[in-house]
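User: Is it possible to get a 3D structure for a protein together with its bound compound? The compound here is manganese (II) ion. I've pasted both below.
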Amino acid sequence: MVSSVSQVSASSDVSPNAIKPAANPAANGSNRMASVSRTTKETDVQVTLNVDGTGKCTADTGIPFLDHMLHQIASHGLFDLEVRATGDIEIDDHHTNEDVGITLGMALHQALGDRKGISRFGHFVAPLDEALVQISLDFSGRPHLSYGLDIPTQRVGTYDTQLVREFFVAIINHAQMTLHIRQLNGINSHHIIEATFKAFARAMRMATETDPRRAETIPSSKGVI
Ligand SMILES: [Mn+2]
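Assistant: Yes, that's possible. Here is the predicted structure of the complex:
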């Protein structure tokens, strides 16, 4: 399914809505930003990410429900995130959904660099009305997904709920992270999925924030992630 990666580069976007370095960059002084473009025969995706942002988001993927979830990641993770995608959604949303996940994962991996000074682990339990979803994650350098959602309907709007798992598979493989998702409660599919993205965002915020006591060191007893 992956045909090629056309370009992976540091950000030099000059558009009016370009994501700018944070006023308060990471404790180690680096600007933790990435801009990644990825083109295949199926999709064309651009992601710009500032991990030390304030929650600004532009999402235009052609998949409205995915846009809604990307807004959750930015807003609750306090990331600045710009995602634009075009893809073969005349077939279905599968390729575009997956490739947005892949490109966002690549941007996370690139923005975090050697992961110096980060807390590395993050967890959160997010309610959304009757839904309650727990996330535990680790920017471990090793991709792993434990997926425990039981979404009762096949679709939310036009979005195929099987694509939630596909999205997280794509992210963890390319961000090189461990992710455990547990659904503790929930009846409504929209609520279950949105609680998952909110918890994921808050856990990512916790894991990617720099720990001043950690300073310049890599958060591993091995000395490398
Ligand atoms: Mn919603």
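Helices lie at 64-77, 94-112, 163-175, 189-208. The longest strand covers residues 43-50.
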